[in-house]
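Progress against Task 2.4 (sequence-to-structure conversion) is shown through the following example record, which the project officer requested during the mid-term review.
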Amino acid sequence: MPHSAGGGSHGGGFHSSSHGSSSSGTSTHYFHGARRYMYYDENGKEKYIYSRTKPVKPSLASVFVFPIFGFIFGFVMLFAIVSDRPQKLKADYPDQDQYVYDNIDVIADDEALTEQLKEFQDVTGICPVVYTFHDSDWEESSSDLEDFTFEVYVTDYSDEKHFVVVYSVPSNRSYDFSWEAVKGDDTDNIITESFFEKFGRQLTDDLDDGVEVGKAMTDAFERATELADRSINPTPARRGMRTFLSFLPALFFVGLMLAVGFLMYKNYHKEQKREYQEVPLTEKDQAKQADPKFQSYYSSASSVADSGANKAVRSVIAVVGIVFLIPFALVGLGMLGSAIDEAQKGDYGLLIFALFWCGFIAIAIIGVIKGLVKAGKKDKEVSLTAEYPEPDKGFAEPVSAENKDKAEASPASPEVNESGSFFARKNQTDYDDEDYKRMKRQGYE
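Structure tokens generated for the chain above:
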């Protein structure tokens, strides 16, 4: 929709318009209910961590989600920068038979002004039109000159590529002038706020200095034509510098995403090589496990609460992720509607981009929902207690025949104390509980 660019008046100056460690994670220290896991780092050195469940390796999808979003945002930034660069408009509006409507005979040389307006049109593709009125012509029908100028635009033109300037004076005081301009939306990348300020400042100053109206309009549009030509057709050096400065934020952002993606993939590759094996707790860990003070601080009730809290946190994160994606989905739908209109005119570039955008956002939303459902199923299947796995499950290495014979000669299951855990010691000097011995029999020591 056309909108006000600004205006000026005698004595009133010129104005312009602008629009404008936890229970669910891992730790290097023992915590209540944790199991001890061993893995080899990239140097072949043994490393130990504590976790309630066997550590899960990151998926490849989780590695690339963040960088992909970064590339999408970077691409959008580049697309916005390219779209915002001044370009000559395609003159697909009806031919303009008349460029100057001097209704009150204040323009001395209509032909000179018309020629300048046509030159401005040839350079920019924008069709400029100048009207002159007495204040009495519009005061009864409009609240001010800006509203009247807008009515002139929407009444006479149906496109968004015109630049309408209305000059008005009282019928008895020709020096007490005012003027307003309204421009179409498609002109915004050329008639910017700074561009219009220069145009309007010169026009208002000339009129204040008593320059004849036609001459003041001609000179203002002559300067506007020069500004537009430099903006649309810059020199190679100026174009290169402007392109570099325009693209610099987007290039920095994309470079940052590349660095983050590289680090995430490097960590993913490192994690994939790790094989976690559950090993017995150390004597110091078992001492902590049997310590009543340590148990009371990390009660089983709090563990269950933490588990529920973690599940709630995952749900909240998933919901926030979906809410975050909704505006981008709406932008994609709006873009798709505009792209269909452009495609009907033979331009399919925006349509391809809109389809790619909507498809990616849809995949991202479905991925978040599937991840949440998968995590919920896993919570049901994986126990969060400190029970050790069955002898024939959870151990990657085979058990030797010698240890197997010892295991068959030993009791089938460990003793459990009244609290239902495996940390009871037989006496003050023996820190090895039945679980610990069972694991020793299976080849760990």
